[in-house]
Amino acid sequence: MVNTIGKTIQVELNAGENVFVFIQNVSGSVSYRSLSLIVKRIGPLVSSAKEEIETIKQKEKRKKQKKASLLEFSESEQ
Q1: How do the residues of the chain divide into helix, strand and coil, expressed in percent and rounded to 5?
Q2: pLDDT for residue 57
Q3: Cβ atoms within 10 A of the Cβ of 49, count?
């Protein structure tokens, strides 16, 4: 049995790209424990990511406003 404590691979990615991990060239019984993936953002967000974050914030804001309006209407009906 071979124990590998850790392996670091650093790759530059763009917003929206996917990461896949393929385990190859193994034979016999293999088990993995305590797997982790660490992503570090270095540099500014690209414009598309900023736009996506802003869109999400606006949607959340509208949801809160709608809930507040419904609550206010409900209380005025009573």
Answers
A1: 40, 0, 60
A2: 92
A3: 14
Contact partners, residue 37, CB within 8 Å, separation at least 6 = 19, 21
Burial of 27 (0-12, 13-18, 19+ CB in 10 A): exposed
Q: Is the pTM of this model over 0.70?
A: no
User: Can you give the pLDDT at residue 60?
Assistant: 92
The pLDDT confidence band at residue 59, using thresholds 50, 70 and 90, is very high
Handedness of CA 52, 58, 60, 62 (dihedral sign): negative
User: Contact, 45 vs 15, CB < 8 A?
Assistant: yes
**18 in Cβ contact with 39 (< 8 Å):** no
- How far does CA 56 lie from the centroid of its chain? 13
